[in-house]
UniProtKB/TrEMBL annotation:
Phosphate binds at residues 57, 95-97. Its EC number is 2.7.7.56. The keyword tRNA-binding applies. The keyword RNA-binding applies. It comes from Candidatus Rhodobacter oscarellae. GO terms for molecular function: 3'-5'-RNA exonuclease activity; tRNA binding; tRNA nucleotidyltransferase activity. Pfam families: RNase_PH, RNase_PH_C. Belongs to the RNase PH family. GO terms for biological process: rRNA 3'-end processing; rRNA catabolic process; tRNA processing. Residues 1-111, 130-193 form the Exoribonuclease phosphorolytic domain. Keywords: Nucleotidyltransferase, RNA-binding, rRNA processing, Transferase, tRNA processing, tRNA-binding. Phosphorolytic 3'-5' exoribonuclease that plays an important role in tRNA 3'-end maturation. Removes nucleotide residues following the 3'-CCA terminus of tRNAs; can also add nucleotides to the ends of RNA molecules by using nucleoside diphosphates as substrates, but this may not be physiologically important. Probably plays a role in initiation of 16S rRNA degradation (leading to ribosome degradation) during starvation. SUPFAM superfamilies: Ribonuclease PH domain 2-like, Ribosomal protein S5 domain 2-like. This is Ribonuclease PH.
Length: 209
């Protein structure tokens, strides 16, 4: 369970000794993700997507989670097996995709630890930590880890996925109400790096617990 303020996400990893058909006999492993929000995760009840089909937002987020986590995986070392990360949002107050990536990495770490302990893999396939945080410009000021009120009124909103070594994996930036300069972008990248380093420290503590 990852809790970032009032955003709470349950992250679970499932190991399977198989890969999608397009990877069969390739020698490569696969990491993928599924994401969902419970009906009362938000202030007003949402209808269950299982009954109505996944929204475009849900599909986009779970693809992002999978892409982000794979950036820190040596798929040759993982071998031909799949790890699926399920991210279920119990309570949402902004930044659910970032929390899912950060918590999902811990679930992935624990799953890989199990494989290594069993001797199923020889070398550690996780090449680096992966964590994510939101940043934006709210009331004219750069802000780290936007909550829902800040996110809904931010002039600029962004999500930053980074490695533990400080390299960028993916950046999603949008001018919601005002354009932004390259200097402001640099400020937000600096804030994101600070936030990610704090998250990586929390990941290490959780994975070693």
């Amino acid at each position: 369970m990852i809790k970032c303020g009032d955003t709470h996400v349950l992250c679970t990893a499932t190991l399977e000794e198989r890969v999608p058909p397009f990877l069969k006999n390739s020698g490569l492993g696969w990491v993928t993700a599924e994401y969902g929000m419970l009906p009362r995760a938000t202030n007003t009840r949402m209808r269950r997507e299982a009954k109505n089909g996944q929204s475009g937002r849900t599909q986009e987020i779970q693809r992002l989670i999978g892409r982000a986590l794979r950036a820190g995986v040596d798929r040759v070392a993982l071998g031909e097996r799949q790890i699926t990360i399920d991210c279920d949002v119990i309570q949402a107050d902004g930044g659910t995709r970032c929390a899912s990536i950060t918590g999902g990495w811990v679930a992935l770490r624990l799953a890989v630890n199990k494989l290594m302990k069993a001797g199923d893999i020889i070398s550690d396939p996780l090449t680096d930590h992966i964590a994510a945080v939101s940043c934006g410009i709210y009331a004219g000021q750069p802000v780290l880890d936007l909550d829902y009120p800040e996110d809904s009124e931010a002039g600029v909103d962004g999500n930053f996925v980074m490695t533990g070594s400080g390299r960028l994996v993916e950046v999603q930036m949008t001018a919601e109400g005002a354009t932004f300069s390259t200097d402001e972008l640099s400020q937000l990248v600096g804030l994101a790096d600070k936030g990610v380093q704090e998250l990586v420290a929390a990941q290490k503590a959780a994975a070693d617990a």
